[in-house]
Amino acid sequence: MPEDGTIETPFDLVGGQAEVLALAEAFYDHMEAHEAELTAVHHQDAPGVIARATRERFGLFLVGWLGGPQTYMERHGHPRLRMRHGHVPIGVDLRDAWIRTMRAAMDARGISGPVRGFLDQRFAEVADFLRNRPG
Fold this sequence. Notes:
About 65% of the residues lie in helices and about 5% in strands. A two-stranded antiparallel ribbon has the order 1-2. It is built from eight helices and two strands, in the order H-H-H-E-E-H-H-H-H-H. Helix 2 packs across helix 7 and helix 7 runs antiparallel to helix 8. The chain has a single domain, classed as Globin-like. The chain is mainly alpha-helical.
């Protein structure tokens, strides 16, 4: 706990705004390079290139979700994750690809220690929550 008595959020432990936004970029970079099926369900600026707006929106979402500034909510309202992802057929394969991609992004950004264990668990829970297809 910091000396001022505040509780550090995952946002703080990851390294703040710049680092969380870099995590979002690493996530999509890895996706484009290694997860074609997952890339295909995202808006793209060119074939195989995730849309810049998608990257930026997810970065803002992560910032707020991890406990940082709530800019995403101010601009886009409540995330309503299940509703926003309802048009994407998410089964076990896409869920697992998403989790692999996020883990690779966290590896690339050097996220480790207790915050990594926490994030591994929370990201897996959210990815599974968004599943809307069996198998």
